[in-house]
């Protein structure tokens, strides 16, 4: 085959991949808009708080905790207040910080908070008037997923068995489309690298998994050791580099796993189909399905992460991965 024919063939493949990528991008955008519409909920104008909150009255010299329940402070707390999976309702005084994870912080009229306010999965309510706060204090708030965080804080094992709902299926469909688009883009940008990685995974999957497991252990120990022994700026830099490596390895490794799984399913179910889109989509659906099963998904996610890291750490190896054949006499 001449160079001109080879160029035309590669250009044709690239145009097909670009068209498939464009269609998948439009589908992903439409599904994302649908999921955001379903998830969006109107904010309540006034938060009344949890009527079953535990009341803290009198003077408390220590920090007040609410584990899986809300707390209502009607007296004075000299340190701070923290609630996991509930609200912190301040009707008296708190000299220290007030935090709620999976709940809201509600400061009534006439109440006082001397420290910072930290809210994860809720809202800081303080009425119409300006709250009685220290001018030097700060407010940190993330208002998303309040119900989910509250349920997790009150029942940690609920993470292992997610509830079947429209949001659950919508997010899974969105994950399928996003990973399908990413897989198409990566295979179109680096076809040779992905092909070699798929071959390496098919030939020596156990070796790749062992290397990924050892690499994850080494990275974890290295990050913890750097944060513990080295100066903070160096430890932070090493942690950021380790995080970038994990992100790149996850993206590259999952695309390779999706492609290898799609080829395996295509050989058994659709042997006559040779389209890259048809090969990638079953692999993505296969692993998203297994990653959504109750009680099993943490093991699936951990296995995908280990194998992905192994593929990323062995991406430059081209020799020595083929199985050696016995010499013929």
Structure description:
This protein is an alpha/beta fold. The chain has 2 domains: 14-37 and 164-313, no CATH class; 54-159, no CATH class. It has 8 helices and 15 strands. A 5-stranded parallel β-sheet has the order 1-4-7-10-13, with no helix packed on it. It has a 5-stranded parallel β-sheet with strand order 2-5-8-11-14, with no helix packed on it. It has a 5-stranded parallel β-sheet with strand order 3-6-9-12-15. α3 (166-189) crosses α7 (276-290). The protein starts with a helix and ends in a 16-residue tail after the last helix. Residues 2-11, 38-46 and 319-329 have low confidence and may be disordered.
List keywords for this structure.
329 residues, alpha/beta, 2 domains, five-stranded parallel sheet, 8 helices, 13% strand, elongated, disordered N terminus, disordered C terminus
Which helices and strands occur, and which strands form pairs?
Elements (H helix, E strand, L loop, with lengths): L2 H37 L14 E3 L2 E2 L3 E4 L3 E3 L2 E2 L3 E4 L3 E3 L2 E2 L3 E4 L3 E3 L4 E2 L3 E4 L3 E2 L6 E2 L5 E4 L3 H9 L11 H24 L1 H13 L1 H25 L2 H38 L6 H15 L6 H17 L16
Parallel strand pairs: 1-4, 2-5, 3-6, 4-7, 5-8, 6-9, 7-10, 8-11, 9-12, 10-13, 11-14, 12-15
Helix pairs in contact: 1-3, 3-4, 3-6, 3-7, 4-6, 5-6, 5-8, 6-7, 6-8
